[in-house]
Design brief:
59 residues, two-stranded antiparallel sheet, alpha+beta, single chain
């Protein structure tokens, strides 16, 4: 999951790597840094949004 809470621009999250977090941390950090910095991430993050499960309070 990569995303942020609606209305709280200073809180972002990245989780759900299962036991591959260490190996996937670098690309996750790169993608999230681009999103936070207002740049276009290297790939479409739509599939990783929390809103695919809920329409409450998340972007």
């Amino acid at each position: 999951m990569l995303g942020s809470l609606r209305g709280i621009t200073s809180l972002h999250f990245a989780f759900g790597h299962q036991h591959l977090g260490v190996t996937q941390a670098a690309i996750t950090a790169e993608l999230l840094a681009a999103k936070v910095g207002g740049e276009k991430p290297a790939m479409d993050l739509l599939a990783y949004r929390v809103t695919r499960f809920s329409r409450c309070c998340v972007d």
